[in-house]
Amino acid sequence: ALLPEALGSSAAGVSGATTNPALMGQALVTHSAHYRSFLHTLPASMPADIRLRSLYDQLIIDSAQLLLPLFLQSWHRTGWLSAQIEGGHWMNQDALVARGLELAALAPNIMIKIPGSAQGYRAIEQLVARGCSINNTFCFSVSQLDACLKAIHAGRQRALANGVNTERARYVVSFMIGRLGAEPEFERQARGRRLHLGQTDKRWAELAVYQAMQALMRRCETPAQLLLCSIKVDTDARGREHCWHLQRTGADTTLYTLTPELIEFLIRRQQAGRSIAPATEWVQIPGKVLDRLLAIPYFNQAYFEGGLTSDEYARYPAFLTAGNDARLGVQRLQGFIADTLDPPVSTPPVARHKTTMEGRA
User: What is the reported pLDDT for 80?
Assistant: First the structure.
């Protein structure tokens, strides 16, 4: 969640950053002394949920501050921080809007990160209508993308009618591409149909959904942009590293979330004289592979527009897994607070008296 200052303020560095509860936990480990000091400034009588929210907000404020110079220098084009609504995957529309507005008020370069549930898309429309910048996360399907684009369009129409300026607002849809293929339910359904689903098949499935999403983006002529996250690096049988998510995408405008591990991979490839570049044209999905994939409901739900109903967005297996990971991230934040304010008490070991038999030994 927290970036080195040089990366955050340099035009040659990153163009933005993202947060989520898991990344927040990593930041607490790296900067534990700073945030333990912050927690000790809070009133002892503060309720636990408010204390958690205060810590979460401070992490976002500190992260956004690092990117603020880039945000100002670029006239708001870059330097955005995507701030995820903690617990947003189970919140209703009103709670999402209320928490989203709170996050947006923390810094001028906040992009509110909202999950792709039915309630989430209703909240996106309301927040867009108020001029907020949006990052739609937990997106795995063309159906969710379609719902998001419609929510953004409706929100912008309401903003226009109400005289709300949206010129500097930004809209991003985060396709968690690597999570789509990694979901165990995908392979389980394939086995149930006596289909072998190898790693290459999963990567083709992810690329197929990506291309279907980009086709929808072109048809809609939307101001939103597609962002790929959960990007994975694969190693082949000969020990060579490659990344389909970077090398076979990008023919249409695409944003990428790069983890430190991905940046290290890109540096290794560059140093070896084999730099990674996005694709310049669409990659053809092999017909036989696509035929096998189309026999699997999990893939069809992601690939086809209308493959999921709005009530099914938050029940899609990959969505549930992502939501559980976010919940675990929040629990780690709670653990950090408990360890800071109520650390376990260490007691000296109790001397054990020898028994009669031990004394004779």
Answer: 97
